[in-house]
Specification:
Structural class: alpha+beta
CATH topology of the largest domain: FAD/NAD(P)-binding domain
CATH class of the largest domain: Alpha Beta
Low-confidence stretches: none
Radius of gyration: 23 Å
CATH superfamily of the largest domain: FAD/NAD(P)-binding domain
Number of helices: 18
Bound molecules: flavin-adenine dinucleotide
Strand content: 15-25%
Largest sheet: 7 strands, mixed
Strand order of the largest sheet: 8-7-17-18-19-16-20
CATH architecture of the largest domain: 3-Layer(bba) Sandwich
Helix content: 25-40%
């Protein structure tokens, strides 16, 4: 048994990215005659910045293209007119099991604190409002028995349907063989079945009422509100549970966007080829290139990347981190660069919608106590109303604070898609006024509100992947594409990474892990190799890679 901290190790590809990153031998070496060679990186989100940073450390010269804003879906939007008050519009809570992500957070010296999730001490208190019934709770014990029945039923369903305790123990022990022995049959059994099916067909929920399922959908496990995922493949949800992605979450003080931006200006101590003090920013003379418009095989066999200004450059290798649908919308991608089966996967990949609405308030007034009941006047709130999840961010007493009035997915996100931020705030305040009838939230709002609908942004077309039943094969094709030795030459040299390629979409850890796969892929493509004492993901992929299902 290992005593290492629990990390998102597998279950599809049980490879210890944190050990690989931490090993003193480094991630690998490139032949000296390739040092300084340019590699294109499309997208400056978490995946693109991690890939670029590590490729620079190997002595290559990443050329980053970004169509929008550095940070991508790690977007920390500052409120105008205040200092340090931000709206986390994309990723906002990061489970401690995200070992790859925290490798970079720690490297950059960023501070993290407990995220104010429902029923956690960091939230202080939680209000659950369903079908017009409102409960105030500080822990699960304060809620009616029905909520505990629901929690116990889901635990029992996980044991029954996924041998949960044994599988968790294998992940904790980083025992790849034991993980595969349990997980691979689950892949066959559950790829084509939904989360909803898993819940309702479990003996535990069969013994309970429809109301229990409904409450589970609203409150769920961990952070709540999981009914938006009911149509997804159950494998997606099991990975969240198994990798503890919905547990022990932290936020990054000052905003998570500091992570990708920090990698832009960080000078690694150890680097091949480049002089001390070299940073990605310096290699780019301070600015990334613009968005990519076209990808094609050049006459010399290399890959031509054309930016939106028409400038074309050729590269031996290209890392692609934007959403996969953009390869058929924003980027004119020569079709023969990918196999048709891979195109099927890239195009069928399903993205979920998500909308968030934030306001800045004068102070963390929600901590005031009601003189009659002694309860906080407002709490972290989960509801079946339009807002779904309301989160409260305290920056210290008497300092401006932020409220995420509404964080919603899928249909709930689409409800506000056509509306401007002001209307979204009005709708959210109206919903919350039914839960907190005596509280005038609007009287505390200062500054201008901020909202986002990721599906409305042409650089994203959605929030994150949410694989549907039957999508495992697609996921496997995209995920494993970084091992290219058996591909025809026409299809080599492009490396896919990021949220849509990952097995744990909607979690930045998956974006980081796939970026590291791409780093290995580029290194191998450029004639490099891993240190024998520190094999990389591609060195062990044939042995440990995700199980194949027949086509
Ligand atoms: C609403 C929301 C909530 C989330 N919550 C969490 C959370 O709490 N915890 C967690 O761990 N994760 C969360 N995630 C997931 C996490 O944010 C993502 O997994 C991660 O940020 C994805 O990084 P990426 O590099 O793969 O993609 P991106 O961040 O999308 O980066 C890709 C980049 O490519 C750029 N691009 C697009 N087209 C082009 C082009 N033609 N040329 C050049 N560049 C282009 C884009 O502008 C973008 O910057 C959340 C995501 C969203 C949207």
């Amino acid at each position: 048994m290992t005593s290492k901290p629990f990390s998102a190790f597998g279950p599809d590809f049980p490879f210890a990215y944190d050990d690989w990153l931490a090993h003193p031998a480094g991630l690998g070496t490139i032949p000296a005659d390739r040092h300084g060679a340019e590699v294109a990186v499309i997208g400056a989100g978490a995946a693109g910045m991690v890939a670029a940073y590590e490729l620079m450390r190997m002595g290559l010269k990443p050329v980053i293209y970004e169509a929008g804003r550095m940070g991508g879906r790690l977007r920390s939007e500052p409120f105008e007119g205040a200092e340090g008050v931000i709206a986390e519009l994309g990723g906002m809570r990061f489970p401690v099991s995200s070992a790859g992500f925290y490798h970079y957070v720690d490297r950059l010296g960023l501070e993290s604190r407990d995220f104010p999730n429902p029923l956690t001490p960091a939230a202080g208190s939680t209000v659950i409002d369903l079908e017009g019934e409102t409960h105030y709770a500080e822990t699960l014990a304060d809620l009616p028995e029905l909520y505990r029945e629901v929690a116990r039923a889901y635990d029992a369903a996980l044991e029954e349907g996924a041998d949960f305790t044994a599988l968790k123990a294998a992940i904790r022990a980083r025992d790849a063989a034991a993980i595969k022995a349990i997980w691979d049959p689950i892949v066959r059994d559950w790829d084509e079945r939904t989360f909803y099916d898993f819940v309702v067909s479990s003996s535990a929920f069969q013994a309970l009422s429809f109301r229990h399922r409904e409450v589970f959908g609203q409150v769920g496990f961990g952070t709540g509100g999981w009914d938006s995922d009911f149509p997804n493949s159950m494998l997606e949800i099991l990975r969240v549970n198994l990798c503890e992605l919905d547990d022990q979450q932290k936020y990054i003080v000052g905003g998570v966007e500091q992570m990708p931006r920090g990698l832009w200006t960080d000078a690694p101590e150890t680097m091949a080829h480049w002089p001390t003090g070299t940073t990605l920013s310096r290699l780019h003379n301070g600015a990334t290139r613009g968005g990519v418009k076209a990808l094609a095989r050049a006459g010399d066999g290399r890959i031509a990347v054309t930016d939106r200004w028409g400038r074309a450059d050729v590269y031996d290798a290209v890392v692609i981190t934007c959403q996969t649908h953009l390869l058929t919308t924003a980027i004119d991608t020569e079709e023969r660069l990918f196999d048709q089966k891979l195109w099927m996967a890239l195009d069928r990949t399903r993205y979920m919608q998500s909308a968030k609405t934030f306001v800045m308030v004068d102070r963390p007034f929600w901590k005031d106590r009601d003189p009659v009941t002694g309860k906080q006047v407002m709490s972290m709130t989960l509801t079946d109303r339009l807002t779904r999840g309301t989160y409260l961010f305290d920056n210290g007493p008497d300092k401006p604070a932020a409220i995420c009035l509404s964080y919603a997915w899928m249909t709930d996100a689409l409800k506000v898609l056509p509306y401007d931020t002001g209307k979204r705030v009005d709708l959210a305040l109206s919903a919350l006024s039914k839960i907190y009838p005596g509280l005038d939230i609007a009287s505390h709002i200062v500054g201008e509100p901020i909202s986002v609908s990721w599906e409305a942004d042409e650089n994203f077309l959605g929030a994150f992947k949410g694989a549907l039943p039957g999508h495992y094969r697609y996921n496997r094709r995209m995920y494993g594409h970084f091992c290219q030795d058996t591909l025809p030459p026409m299809e080599r040299g492009l490396f896919l990474a990021g949220d849509g390629v990952s097995f744990t979409p909607a979690w930045v850890e998956g974006a980081v892990q796939t970026a590291l796969n791409a780093v290995w892929g580029v290194m191998h493509h450029m004639g490099g190799q891993s240190a024998p004492e520190n094999p990389g993901p591609g060195d062990v992929f044939a042995q440990l890679g995700p199980v194949a299902l027949s086509d």
